[in-house]
């Protein structure tokens, strides 16, 4: 057989393949009504190992074994009267996550119990719904508060240069004048909703990393960090700026953040405890990634993921009755980027979390291998303790001074030099 | 032999419902093995299957058409392998395993090999040792590093670098150690179960380490199409 004939055969085969029905179901619209009937079924994903095939790169490839896992998933779906609507490999956890939808009459707790006992299933859980943590009230008085951090002086020490910051949120307006060129990677993990710029994600992105010294708008806390904008939440029509996310979409985004070696992850969202997300967060924390999450002011323990062990939980500095160990950051009347190439003011713990995320990016530029305890110690320096003693308002200058080993700004000159690390 | 293998696979799967069997069928324009063409610079057809046990054991078989200088007819290479892979902290995994490569019509080239490897989601490194590499009086140590980076949703950048340290008998100089470097750079495009790859493959030497036939080309552009199952 000549090479030419072989190549023609290859192209013919490829043509057949292109016409074939795809085996993997993706793109099924996400909607909050159907998620109530959905379960996440995790099948084991073998670690990468030796294969002599010439096309196998020797490292992880989602398609290796995907057909086999799908066959198993179809068997499970058939046995329990489920419909497979989506799937996403999560090598960080060693699982392939299948979304399956039950009939409206099915009892989800009973179904989950049965699935958890099935030897083919690594684990199973329901799909949780999360919401972004911001005020939607447009009548909030408009006064900037971020100046309390002496940002211009901090930027003489660090700007977050090349620190990889993943923002798991709604869509970001990447061509906003104050964000142009600032988003290194943007990905959409929400199927069935147009990939559009949205209010919350754009506002959080601006606070973290808007361009500085460009003569327009605002300066982000970390204006030279590499922003990774991961759309895992969406704004359903007719709900104003309110946005929701699901376990599955947030899980996919976290998996991607791990793949991209993010150093800081911002989660300005909250919802119920979620096993899949807990596992992904544990992997992220074990890899030294700093995870910052907004506190849900309406939930006693701050909600999930803020309450997860190891996560930096952040509330707005005007919050009351926040739980122990929560950090307070600027979260009221914050000027930031708004969809439509505009600027506006926002309030809420989402934006306080964005401030802390930016601050951690500054710290990690100065010392890339900072351990979680060192970050907490830095944030504690000169932090103003609340009357209850449970939470602290962060002093950004003092934190940067602590890590940089040099006075970051005039506000920090009074720091006890004994607290500085050795040169 | 095939019947026995099929029966063994069936028994393994029947015993463990959570085990997975996967594989691929591939057409490749030039079967380059560690930089050397084992298909007379021409096309080859390949088939591979792997059984993955949830406890980390895996076993598999691979077959490819080959063409050597002797015998000059198209023959078949088969590789059977068995290994164990386990997860490490930090997203890493490690493995150990053994393989046996056999050739129809050219049994003299058959050889066993053992390997150890470590892998992350995007990178892997593996070290192989064969005491009778291609059935010659030679000790071969081969190290390789492979990388894959997702460029777009369906497009991956693939890189590979390897070095073979071969201690073989030379009729003029006695035992001599020599090194052969090989590299591969390419792009893979995935269409659901199908994958198309275009690679450049290069080798530092066209030496007689391998019983290759035809012109010993050190570099080649290789196109492949595979379907995974």
How would you sum up this structure, described in words?
- Chain A folds into 2 domains: 105 residues, Alpha-Beta Plaits, CATH 3.30.70; 289 residues, Rossmann fold.
- Chain A has 423 residues and is of the alpha/beta class.
- Chain A is 28% helix and 21% strand.
- Chain A has a 9-stranded mixed β-sheet with strand order 7-8-6-11-13-14-15-19-18, with helices on both faces. A 4-stranded antiparallel β-sheet of chain A has the order 2-3-1-4, with helices on both faces. A 4-stranded antiparallel β-sheet of chain A has the order 9-10-5-12.
- In chain A, helix 8 runs parallel beside helix 10 and helix 9 crosses helix 10.
- The C terminus of chain A is likely disordered.
- In chain B, the strands form 2 sheets. In chain B, strands 1-4-5-6-7-8-9-10-11-12-13-14 form a 12-stranded antiparallel barrel.
- Chain B is mainly beta and 229 residues long.
- Chains A and B meet through helix 1 and helix 2 of A and strand 1, strand 4, strand 5, strand 6 and strand 7 of B.
CATH class of the largest domain in chain A: Alpha Beta
Distance between the termini of chain B: 22 Å
Oligomeric grouping of the chains: heterodimer
Strand content of chain B: over 45%
